[in-house]
Structure to design on (546 residues):
RNA sequence: GCGCCCGUAGCUCAACUGGAUAGAGCAAUUGCCUUCUAAGCAAUAGGUUUCAGGUUCGAGUCCUGACGGGCGUACCA
């Protein structure tokens, strides 16, 4: 059901409700029933009013219907069903008019405006440059990008940002690892650092450095040039991977800039002025107990080094200072603990926490050879996203990460993904699109129409079901965007493909009466448009043939 | 111990934020290619939604308590 119809129904219901002399109007909800025989739209207001009006729901429903003043060009019938639902059936013409709007809107069909005028920042991936992106990062990357696309379709102006830290212990060890491999490459003795990065990519970077023939020191304190080279190479690799996955970042934000511009220091000072920060045991503490936590937490260690919470707070203030109406963070379940501290910090300093929201996703369990597989970047025990895409391509990769709700664990069976082929549901969607494209190619050869199309010839059950299904598209996108749950769109796309295939099966296009063929071609075009728009949001290609 | 997420068909998961008969895919069984792409369609089978209470017209969904799994709970990020 589109929002225009929704508004209309709510309006006429509200008018009818005036007869009851209610103190407060109930929240009128209208939705498409699960079962088609229940009509096109349904409302439960009568049941909600049962208690305040002290009457039985079906009697109230009857009174509401009696008081209903509706346009017969839009609504064909209204009836009471079950415990007191009021079901509406659309006028046929309405359906055909709506089908025409899909064709007229074309690649814009599905766009709504609930976020229009809003500036949104989605921060995701944000992996530190210590190694290639793994399958574990994939869920974050694809989820973030697709939520961003959904928000764009609801009118938001979205920026994608990658937050990283190239300072700290991890990066030092990375530099030292490259250094060790570099001297091995030159045939010299050099100790490999404890807990160093063992991946093959480290050797590749070292080999490239060796071939450049620079005069680099073997002094283990002189790891910085190695770190810089490694960071450069790894970032190039990460960017390449993201590009392959159809992801384009608008900005990369280095945590280090928060130190150099003084925001870290000023954040601590401002919290101290509020009396929320104190010194103890040589460390600087944040009074998180004031916000309901069991313990205070350390902001700056006794070594003088901040914990990650402090830059996180400063970073979020930075984002809000840049004028965003909504800042979305995408991160895995292991980061959930820091989030409340960040909110406490920024709200204490007068920022609106409603403008910050988080998309939490549960971990990806890698299943390899039928066994759960523990990954570690340091130990080089991982499957990279590049390896995965080499095997199955980016369409399947993106689809796989989006299929499931973010808050359930995603089981990623490598073997199954690799053999994906005809088992993979992404092909079901693409296949439906390719079939339509094929039929449309054939019809342009066989037909040339002179008269206007008459869509009202589409009276077959399969045709009506298909029209009603594709009309739900804008509402689905808005819901998925609000919930930040791309898998809803995937489920919907399956409904579309399924409704199309049963139409395709029952209703031939070529070889039937010419005006009917013409109408069916239009319906096929509209379906292709919805599939194409949906696949665009998912970042998946819509192939003309398969 | 405490906090967050989860428990739905043999397996992997949905269920449009409390609605009507809980649905898909895979696996199983059975039909359908001289007609627009069989990467498909149609049908059969598979369920006490982990368990026990509660809230209300109505609960897979909300609340309480068990049981089971995952992730946190660091002067690691």
């Amino acid at each position: 059901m589109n929002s225009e119809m929704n508004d209309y129904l709510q309006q006429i219901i509200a008018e009818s409700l005036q007869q009851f002399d209610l103190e407060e109007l109930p929240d009128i909800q209208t939705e498409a029933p699960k079962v088609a025989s229940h009509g096109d739209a349904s409302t439960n207001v009568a049941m909600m009013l049962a208690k305040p009006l002290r009457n039985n729901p079906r009697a109230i429903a009857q009174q509401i219907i009696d008081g209903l003043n509706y346009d017969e060009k839009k609504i064909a019938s209204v009836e009471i069903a079950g415990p007191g639902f009021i079901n509406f059936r659309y006028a046929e013409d309405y359906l055909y008019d709506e089908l025409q709007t899909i064709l007229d809107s074309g690649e814009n069909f599905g766009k709504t405006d609930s976020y229009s005028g809003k500036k949104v920042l989605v921060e995701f991936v944000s992996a530190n440059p210590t190694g290639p992106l793994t399958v574990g990062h994939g869920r974050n990357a694809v989820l973030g990008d697709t939520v961003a696309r959904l928000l764009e379709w609801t009118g938001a102006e979205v920026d994608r940002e990658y937050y990283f830290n190239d300072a700290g212990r991890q990066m030092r060890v990375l530099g030292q690892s490259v250094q060790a491999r570099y001297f091995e490459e030159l045939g010299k003795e050099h100790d490999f650092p404890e807990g160093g990065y063992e991946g093959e990519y480290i050797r590749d970077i070292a080999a490239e450095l060796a071939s450049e023939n620079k005069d680099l020191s073997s002094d283990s304190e002189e790891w910085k040039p190695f770190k810089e080279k490694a960071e450069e190479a790894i970032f190039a690799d990460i960017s390449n991977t993201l590009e392959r996955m159809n992801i384009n970042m608008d900005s990369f934000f280095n945590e280090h800039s928060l130190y150099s511009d003084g925001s870290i220091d000023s954040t601590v000072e401002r919290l101290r002025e509020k009396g929320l920060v104190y010194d103890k045991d040589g460390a600087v503490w944040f009074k998180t107990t004031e916000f309901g936590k069991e313990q205070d937490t350390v902001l700056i260690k006794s070594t003088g080094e901040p914990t990650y919470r402090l830059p996180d707070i400063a970073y979020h203030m930075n984002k809000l200072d840049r004028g965003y109406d909504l800042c979305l963070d995408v991160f895995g379940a292991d980061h959930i603990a820091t989030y409340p501290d960040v909110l406490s910090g920024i709200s204490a300093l007068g920022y609106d926490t409603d403008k910050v929201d988080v998309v939490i996703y549960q971990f990806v369990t890698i299943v390899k050879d039928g066994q759960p597989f523990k990954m570690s970047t340091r130990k080089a025990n991982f499957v990279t996203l590049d390896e995965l895409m080499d095997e199955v391509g980016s369409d399947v990769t993106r689809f796989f990460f989006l299929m499931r709700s973010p808050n359930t664990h995603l089981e990623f069976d490598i073997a199954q993904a690799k053999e994906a082929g005809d088992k993979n549901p992404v092909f079901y969607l693409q296949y439906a699109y390719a079939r339509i494209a094929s039929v449309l190619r054939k019809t342009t050869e066989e037909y040339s129409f002179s008269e206007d199309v008459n869509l009202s010839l589409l009276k077959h059950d399969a045709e009506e079901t298909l029209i009603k299904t594709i009309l739900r598209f804008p509402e689905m996108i808005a819901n998925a965007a609000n919930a930040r749950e791309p898998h809803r769109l995937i489920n919907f796309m399956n409904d579309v493909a399924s409704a199309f295939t049963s139409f395709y099966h029952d209703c031939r296009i070529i070889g039937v009466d010419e005006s009917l063929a013409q109408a069916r071609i239009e319906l096929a075009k509209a379906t292709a448009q919805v599939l194409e728009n949906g696949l665009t949001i998912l970042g998946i290609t819509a192939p003309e043939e398969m």
